[in-house]
Design goal:
Strand 1 and strand 2 form a beta hairpin. This protein folds into three domains: 48 residues, no CATH class; 42 residues, no CATH class; 36 residues, no CATH class. By secondary structure, the protein is α+β, with helices and mostly antiparallel strands. The termini are far apart. It contains five helices and six strands.
Length: 148
């Protein structure tokens, strides 16, 4: 079946390979122009379905790659992944994903204390202060940031 090239095809900027598969034109990045195939060259496969039905998801049981326990990839999570455009299913259960996120921060942060250069109060820092540069407590730092 031949498909006439429409303004919808022009609105969809797809690459030549996809255009061959779908029977549409494509945006040529080299020439920065929209190119279309001649009407007689454009072909569309007949699927028999007028519109694709919304995808229905079913809970899946997956084995975690870390702890080897089974966990459920729910239909709601699958819909969320599809909405966000994620291509891969999760490999880890929730507990192992959380553990992986926190691996680097397993030891507590080390804090340094110094005297605020503006108010003279105590400033708690996550870095070692250098004597040449001023140090500010949270309140003074926020005041200076807003003043900019």
């Amino acid at each position: 079946m031949k498909c006439p090239v429409s303004s919808v095809h022009k609105a969809l900027r797809i690459n030549p390979k996809d255009a061959d598969e779908t029977g549409a034109g494509y945006h040529n990045k080299t020439t920065q122009r929209y190119e279309m195939y001649e009407e007689e060259e454009v072909k569309v496969e007949e699927t028999g379905a007028e519109e694709s039905a919304p995808t229905e998801y079913v809970d899946k049981v997956i084995v975690c790659v870390d702890c080897k326990k089974e966990f459920t990839f729910t239909a709601g999570e699958q819909a969320f992944y599809a909405e966000k455009g994620y291509q891969n299913e999760p490999k880890r259960c929730k507990a192992c994903r959380d553990a992986k996120k926190n691996r680097g921060s397993s030891e507590p942060k080390k804090y340094y204390y110094a005297t605020c250069s503006e108010c003279g109060g105590e400033a708690r820092l996550t870095f070692e202060p250098s004597p040449e540069k001023p140090v500010y407590c949270d309140a003074c730092f926020e005041k200076r940031r807003r003043a900019r």
